[in-house]
Amino acid sequence: MKSALCFLLLLAPVSASAEDGAKLFTPCRACHSLDPAEQGLPGPNLSDLIGRTVGSAEGFDYSPALRKANADGLRWDAQRLDRFLNDPAEMFPGLWMSIRGIEDAGDRGALVRFLSDPASR
Ligand code: HEC
């Protein structure tokens, strides 16, 4: 039964799902939590990211780059997050988060959906 299911999954067209989003977020968990109660990681809490002002996680000490974006009133929406994940340092030169961007648009979309929708977690 289980192997039949795997076989079907292999035949299915490659499409990014919520599960992929969770998988893509795995390396981010080294620095970010989605649990609002979890503090003290190297990166800001991302529990309520979409809709909030850039650089606004309570108690987090942001770089000047994100403090400026905060002062300018930039907000996280799906499009901005997608562009950010493509090349974080390009959007915010001087960013204190040195990860490579995610080049695959489908992967980025899955990750954005995962971060946008608490129900999918
Ligand atoms: C090595 C640690 C580390 C990893 C891994 C990491 N980040 Fe970050 N992230 C940070 C830090 C530190 C900041 C704050 C940067 C600053 O102040 O310039 C940040 C900021 C962010 C922000 C802006 C948050 C806000 O409050 O405005 C988002 C969104 C984000 N990261 C998403 C991700 C995603 C998605 C991944 C995985 C693909 C990821 N990060 C991986 C350390 C990390």
Question: Overview of this structure, please?
Answer:
The chain is mainly α and 121 residues long. The chain has a single domain, classed as Orthogonal Bundle (Cytochrome Bc1 Complex, Chain D, domain 2). It has six helices and no strands. The protein has helices at residues 2-11, 18-25, 64-71, 78-86, 88-91, 105-116. Helix 2 crosses helix 6. The longest helix has 12 residues, at 105-116. The two termini are 26 Å apart. Bound molecules: heme C. Heme C binds at residues 27-28, 30-32, 42-44, 46, 49, 54-57, 62-63, 65-66, 85, 95-97, 99, 111. Heme C binds next to helix 3.
Q: Which descriptors apply to this entry?
A:
single chain, 121 residues, mainly alpha, Cytochrome Bc1 Complex, Chain D, domain 2
The biggest beta sheet is recorded as: none
Could you tell me the mean pLDDT?
89
Distance between the termini: 26 Å
Number of helices: 6
- Low-pLDDT residue intervals, each spanning 5 or more residues: none
The CATH superfamily label reads Cytochrome c-like domain
Query: Structural class from helices and strands?
Result: mainly alpha
